[in-house]
Please model this.
Amino acid sequence: MTRLAIFNCKGGVGKTTTTLNLAAVLARSGRLPYLVDMDPQAHLTRILDKLPETPATSLFALYSASATLRTLVQAHPGLGYLLPAHGQLMKVDSLFGKGPATLNRLRHGLEALEAELPGPVLIDCCPYVGVLSLSAVFAASAVLVPVSSDYLSLQGAKQIDHALKSLEPVLKQRLPRRYVLTRFDRRRRMGEDIRSRLRQEVGDDLCDTVISENVAVAMSPSLGQDVFSYQASSRGAQDYQALYQELQGAGLL
Amino acid sequence: MTRLAIFNCKGGVGKTTTTLNLAAVLARSGRLPYLVDMDPQAHLTRILDKLPETPATSLFALYSASATLRTLVQAHPGLGYLLPAHGQLMKVDSLFGKGPATLNRLRHGLEALEAELPGPVLIDCCPYVGVLSLSAVFAASAVLVPVSSDYLSLQGAKQIDHALKSLEPVLKQRLPRRYVLTRFDRRRRMGEDIRSRLRQEVGDDLCDTVISENVAVAMSPSLGQDVFSYQASSRGAQDYQALYQELQGAGLL
Ligand SMILES: Nc1ncnc2c1ncn2[C@@H]1O[C@H](COP(=O)(O)OP(=O)(O)OP(=O)(O)O)[C@@H](O)[C@H]1O
Ligand SMILES: Nc1ncnc2c1ncn2[C@@H]1O[C@H](COP(=O)(O)OP(=O)(O)OP(=O)(O)O)[C@@H](O)[C@H]1O
Ligand SMILES: [Mg+2]
Ligand SMILES: [Mg+2]
Model:
């Protein structure tokens, strides 16, 4: 099973953008993915215009009503099957606790879903370490960490490695991970500086592919589209295609 | 008293960058501010290289040891007085609850501090709604909401107004607020589109000043500096100066 958690506790680094566009590459290569939106702010769900009227038809129901994921799935033609978020996800830790039962519910839900209809899974995470993002990591077979090509994001990347290391005893394995630079602007010297510093920090876990700063990538969500539907010839689309090939080559997607 | 909470639950919109650079404008106009870092990721604290060895000398001690803020303050020459964050702040809600005593502790702490040594207060918030950011809003006399000039950030801005409205019954007042566009890139059409959409959404609460996309603003944190120390003649420095004047003119700073 292929389940990729797209996680970084630093905010605004391109987690949602990367989930959306990697899903589009998967769909175009004939592998319709599940898109799991584990962010109470539901940005991915809003881009796809599928914000549920009530929490009962969102991922929140996985916790509040032990709903099966099959009943929550919303097909989005040409992209995959969305498991929509809702603001109520904010309350999962205070309502259901932070114990192993809560932390493993998403993993168990995905195992049941895959048994019926297998497919790759992409999980978009919220920008903090908590029950929701830990559930995503517990359910994942690998973690993709987008790092925006700027210094504050670089400062945040060091804390991810630390967080993932502290989970190894619980997961009883070292979760394969890749870091990918996003919003990479070749016109600025700082891009190369950040790249070499990140490589020093994480070594071969750094993807060779970088996602360029690209206006098509920034524009497509406003039309509810991925970058391929918006402008397949754009630099951003090419970069996400290359990222997919690199992750596939590494056996992570 | 002047206390500005710099808040947006959307990640990566320029909260920390704005706190840092507004503090520098205040300092340069002779009003040394308190900088309160209420983000467990402690980005502001790290830029100023003041990450405490133990939580006992950070804002966490306000909760765990009822420390006075005066004992936690770290002077940063030329900028102001930092109240440093620590990763343990993550645990404030599970250790001390989410009740009024916890939610008002920062406000009470700041009242005591100002009684001894008054000064303007800037509070940098984490990218989610919880005990920490609510404490900041409860302590504030106004809220500044940075909105990055992109569609996903615009999508997030609507949720802020919603969150602030839901607090009005508890605060027994409508908290004055201003939205400021950050990373505004005049070379892209989408900047003006976002500006007009945000104005439709929030009306006169939108600042006339925009903060331009500016490499000096992106670079200065890597050297532990604000944009004025790094390059006072930069476009970013001018924009933050103009923002300060606009907020001062509105009686918010
Ligand atoms: N390659 C890119 N080129 C241009 N803009 C980009 C690129 N990647 C992301 N962005 C912009 O950066 C902003 C932040 O991206 P996004 O919202 O995907 O980050 P995130 O990590 O999911 O944020 P959050 O932490 O709030 O969930 C978006 O509005 C998007 O438009
Ligand atoms: N005016 C600007 N010009 C260029 N880059 C900017 C500007 N403002 C912010 N940035 C860059 O955007 C990134 C995000 O900004 P910052 O970390 O301040 O946002 P934040 O809202 O505090 O993020 P978080 O939600 O993670 O706390 C920073 O790395 C910074 O370099
Ligand atoms: Mg996101
Ligand atoms: Mg910040």
Summary: The first helix of chain A runs from residue 15 to 28. The interface with chain B takes residues 9-13, 16-17, 40-41, 43, 46-47, 90, 94, 98, 126-129, 148, 150-153, 155-156, 159, 188, 190, 215, 218-219, 221-222 of chain A (CB under 8 Å). The radius of gyration of chain A is 17 Å.
